[in-house]
Amino acid sequence: MKTKLISGLSMDPKEIERKSLDNQEFLKLRSATEKISAELLKRVKRHLNILRPLFVPRKLLGTYVRSGTMEEVPGSDKAFAELQERFASVAQKPFGLPSKLKTPLAPIPNQLEAAPFQYSLHSEGSPDKAITITTSAKWLISFHSDCSLGRLKAMLAGEEPKQPEDMKQAVIHHLLPVIFLHRFNDVAGLLEDLRYVVRTEEIAELGGLPVVTLEAPLKTFLPPDDFIQQITQLSGIPAFQEIIDLEAINSLTDPLKESIKALV
Question: Would the pTM count as exceeding 0.85?
C-alpha cells in the first residue's frame, strides 16, 4: 500500500493540474463530472459493502473491542499495540485526549464508509480566503462514526464544543482501516485489483492523523484561480469540485492486461 504525506486542508495549488476553460466547456464538463463522480461513489460503496466480512473489527482486535463474541484472536495483541501507538501519537496534540486507550474499546460497527476527499485551496489573489475543493474520484475510508471528520475538524477549530468521547471514536474509526490494510496486505491487493489506488495519507492539520484513501484511475484538474473565484462568487458558496478529464478516459489501461503482457 502506498504511503503519501498530505497537508490535509492545505494543498499547494502548484501541485494541482490546471486547464483553462470557457464557460460553455465548464458547464459541459461539470455536468459530466457530477454524473461520473456520483456513479464512482456508488461503485466504491458497493465494493466496500461486499468486502464488509473482511473488515470485522473483532477479527483484528479480538477481546480488545467489546462485541457479542469475546474470543481471543491471533495477532490481536500486535494489532492493538499498533492502534495504541498510532492513537497516542495524535491524542494529546491536537485533540487534547488521554493518550492511553482503555479496553475493551466501545463496540465498533462493521460498516465502512466512503466520503469524497476534501481540501482547501488558497489562491494567490486571496490567500486569506479558503475555497473547499471536493475531489471527484478519491474517497476517505473509515468505519462508521457518529462524529464525522468534518465535525472533528469543527471541534478543533472551536466551531463546535469539544466532545472527548466523540473525538476519540472518530480518531479510532479512521485509524482502524489503516491498521487493517497494514496487517492484511492481501486486502489492499484486492482493492488494487478493483482498480483503486490505495494509500495511507497523513492529515497534517489533524496532527498527522493517518487515514486510508481510495482513488479511481481517472485524471482530474482545476481551472485557474480567477475562474474558480468567479464561479464561487456567483454561487455564493466557497466550494468547488475537481473536474474529471474526459479526454484521459480513453487512455485508461487495464492492469490485468498490462501484467499479462509483461509476462510474454
Answer: yes
